[in-house]
């Protein structure tokens, strides 16, 4: 009887331990939705989950949504790892949400991909440029766009889509038009004026959702947009006739970045997952599947003839905006944008 009881007790303890292990071994990752989420779930998560015996939960949303979630959960963080754009990442770091990353292979990571005190690291370089429907352009005998000025051309009336200002692509466009008008991040008025009077009349919708963006192109309502090289490549991979241009004035750099979330009891696998994302193998997957320019020097990738990747000279020539100034003013700009542009 004692032996049976001992077996039952041992089994119960084992079940309890395995239940606890299962409860602990869950990693909550917040990141972008759409095709990026698909790639994470299909190509990136499974090998890591298998190696570490961990279950991965994915919380999809744009970067500003993720930072808002971190703020809302401040006293009890649910997220273990956050993948967000560089601008909101600077905010997340300033708000104390990011823990320093340990074990980064410093010599292998490009210096442009590293953040101060290793509070975050880029997992891919994206170029913000102009995406267009090659088939429609060929049918209408339109020349491919070459310049940011082309978005003002009246022939695109109600066929242009621009992400709103709380999206990095939309922000890059505003800064570009400010610079074109003799301003800058510190003197933004010209950007608002250009959007209001010259670009705005062509805009069908200011669309933040990647899924809706591809729908608008697929349905033929949109033929040209401001978008990122990664999104454009993922769209081209579906067979859509995508054209993507690095404008002659310069395309803008967006660093898709990651940080482990600072919390009283950090998830033991969070650091390992961040390190995993910058390995050559994962960097190669993100480049081929999503069009990211790699941040690890050892990643071997081939360019894509349909959507040229931000590598080599193209990556070196990308314009980096003044995030310190932008983040100080962004709330005011968002309110002004709602008031003046997206009325």
From TrEMBL:
A Gene Ontology term for the protein's cellular component: outer membrane-bounded periplasmic space
InterPro entries: SBP (IPR006059)
Keywords: Signal
GO biological processes: thiamine transport
CDD domains: PBP2_polyamine_RpCGA009
Signal peptide, first to last residue: 1-21
Pfam families: SBP_bac_8
Keyword Signal: yes
GO MF entries: thiamine binding; thiamine pyrophosphate binding
Keyword Nucleotide-binding: no
UniProt name for this protein: Spermidine/putrescine-binding periplasmic protein
């Amino acid at each position: 009887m004692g032996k049976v009881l001992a077996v039952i007790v041992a089994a119960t303890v084992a079940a309890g331990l395995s239940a606890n292990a299962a409860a602990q071994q869950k990693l909550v990752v917040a990141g972008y939705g759409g095709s990026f989420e698909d790639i994470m779930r299909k190509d990136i998560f499974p090998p890591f989950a298998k190696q570490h015996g961990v279950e991965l939960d994915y919380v999809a949303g744009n970067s500003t949504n993720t930072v808002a979630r971190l703020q809302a959960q401040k006293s009890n963080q649910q997220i273990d790892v956050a993948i967000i754009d560089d601008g909101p990442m600077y905010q997340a770091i300033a708000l104390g949400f990011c823990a320093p990353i340990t074990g980064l292979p410093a010599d292998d990571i490009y210096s442009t991909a590293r953040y101060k005190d290793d509070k975050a690291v880029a997992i891919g370089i994206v170029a913000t440029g102009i995406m267009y429907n090659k088939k429609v352009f060929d049918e209408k005998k339109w020349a491919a766009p070459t310049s940011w000025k082309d978005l003002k051309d009246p022939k695109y009336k109600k066929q242009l889509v621009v992400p709103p200002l709380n999206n990095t692509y939309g922000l890059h466009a505003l800064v570009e038009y400010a610079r074109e008008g003799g301003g800058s991040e510190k003197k933004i008025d010209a950007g608002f004026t250009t959007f209001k009077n010259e670009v705005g009349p062509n805009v069908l919708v200011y669309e933040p959702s990647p899924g809706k963006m591809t729908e608008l192109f697929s349905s033929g309502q949109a033929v040209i947009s401001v978008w990122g090289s990664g999104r454009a490549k993922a769209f081209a991979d579906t067979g859509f006739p995508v054209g993507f241009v690095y404008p002659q004035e310069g395309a803008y750099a967006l660093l898709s970045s990651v940080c482990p979330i600072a919390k009283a009891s950090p998830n033991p696998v969070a650091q390992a997952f961040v390190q995993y994302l910058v390995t050559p193998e994962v960097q190669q997957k993100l480049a081929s599947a999503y069009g990211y320019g790699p941040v690890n020097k050892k990643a071997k990738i081939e360019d894509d003839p349909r959507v040229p990747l931000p590598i080599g000279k193209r990556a070196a020539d990308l314009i980096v905006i003044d995030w310190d100034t932008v983040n100080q003013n962004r709330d005011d700009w968002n309110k002004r944008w709602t008031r003046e542009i997206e009325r």
